[in-house]
Every structure is written in structure tokens, then in C-alpha cells.
Amino acid sequence: MSDNLAAVNVAAAMLWTAPGGKRPHDGLMLGAATEPAAWADGMDEAMRLWLVGRVESQLLYGERVAVLDRDGDWLRVAAADQATDRDERGYPGWLPAVQVDDGPLFLRELAAGPAVVVTAPRAALYADAAGREKLMELSWQTRLPLLAAEGALLAVWRPDGGTGFLAARDAAPLSPAPFDGARLVAAARRFAGLRYVWGGTSAWGFDCSGFCLRLYQSQGVSIPRDADEQAAGGAAVARGELAPGDLLFFAGPGGQGDIHHVGVYTGGNTMIHAPNSRAAVREEDFTAGTYGEEFWGARRYR
Q1: Choice among 25, 208, 212, 260 that is catalytic
Q2: Is a pLDDT exceeding 50 seen at residue 119?
Q3: What does the pLDDT read at residue 150?
Q4: Domain that holds residue 250
Q5: Cα gap 168→226, rounded to integer Å
Q6: Distance CA 302, CA 298 (A)
Q7: Do 296 and 216 reside in the same domain of the chain?
Q8: Residues 25, 212, 260, 261: which is the catalytic one?
């Protein structure tokens, strides 16, 4: 199959390692409409751990994918806005075919601009300009082509070619701006206490590198999807020269071996990060305990 471009048409889509074979609870994320809040909130620790090795990443509404293959009702895609060395077309994985739309209007408008980005942690997308009929809830960093600004609401294109409306207070024009480490840290702190989700890149749950991916996207900077590839790029930073927003990486004892974790430096000896499936986004000392023993180094992207 040729690499046909399409766009995600659900609030959030999980990118799975293989088609089919999911749990009943995952039905909340497998249909033509997904319920990411109910899905994430309904998982205990064991259910979250089950995702490890079964989920590749998570895609937001409107995110572009290249369609690579099909297996029944599932598509193998490459997430075009999540860079990886695994595939130059984007981060690869499987999702239900009903969760993408290949309508040319949305893709054309997204490429041409202007666009808006959701700046609230979560925002309602409405079907009507009066803001009465809610279609779905969108995550922070969801990006959609702007059709028109209509008072307190912004009219946007939807992946199916229809029109949707966002409250102007929940979104902002997508425009280049200088990188601001303090602003990135402030954005990260808004998610303190949010439970970790393996593969997560949304306001319903992040994994460590997915958190950093979206934080840097919020500053107009593209970085790789995975922690080991994030550590291979950017510019090395000495510990004494760290600045808020720099990425901190962790490997095995003594900082040796494969990279397994990443956090964001916030100042002093602290970082904010999404630790693991048993925890939530938190800010803590990166020089103490296991993190202090496994600190590998830091990278700066601007």
C-alpha cells in the first residue's frame, strides 16, 4: 500500500504494537469515538502495567499519519509528527481503521495554515457556534486548522471535513515563538499529579518521553518520540550549566547502559517527570536516590 496521508478523527488514539487482541476495557479506545478520560481513570496499577510492550504511542485528534498497511479492520501507520529512527515517515504502530480519515480538505488546510493549538489541559470541541452541542473533549497540544474567529469561539476544520468550535480561552494561534524554558516548566507543572500511561502523550496520561515530546512541541521545537533518541540529539549540557527546560536522562547504575528515563530540569536539583506506571507526574530531586545514581547526562534542544 502506498503511504497515503490521513488524520486521526478521535480525541485520542492508541498506537498498538499489533492489531487485535485487546482487553474489554480497551474498547473505550477502539471505536469510532474514544473515551480517553474514562479509559485512563478506569485503570488500576496492574491494568496500566499491562500496556507495557503492547502500546507504542498515542495520537491526538487531527494528528497526521501515513497509512502503511492494512490487516482487516486495522491499519499500520506512521505518526508523521512523532519523529523516530525506526521509520523516517514517523512513529510506527497499529490502530483501528475507523480512527482515521483521509479527507483532503483537512490535510490541505492543516498544511496551509493558519492553525490553532489547544492550550488548556483539556478543551471541549463543539458542533455548533453557540457552544451547546459537545462533540468530544480534546487534549492539550491538539492542533487544528483555523476557519474563522467568531467572538468567544474559534471555528476549526475537523478531520472529516466538517466544522467544529473551540472556546477562544482554551486555544491560541499556532505561531512561531522563541523557546522559553520557564514557560515550558510552567506548562509541565500544570500536569502534576496526572497518572502515568505507557505510550501516553496526552492530558489523560503521559509516559516520560511522551511528556517531553508534547512539552517541546508547545515551544515549537520538534524532538524524537523516545528517550534514547532524545538523548542522542540536541546539545550536551554540563550539570553546572543546566537551564530550566533542559532534558535529563537516566541509564543503569553509574549512568551506564541504555537510556531508560527522561525528565525536565526545573532548577536547583529538581526535575519534573512522568516516572512509571505506578506513579504520577511529579517534581523531585534528580540528584538523590536511584535517579542520582543513574544520571546519564543532559541535552538541550532549542
Answers
A1: 208
A2: yes
A3: 77
A4: 181-300
A5: 32
A6: 13
A7: yes
A8: 261
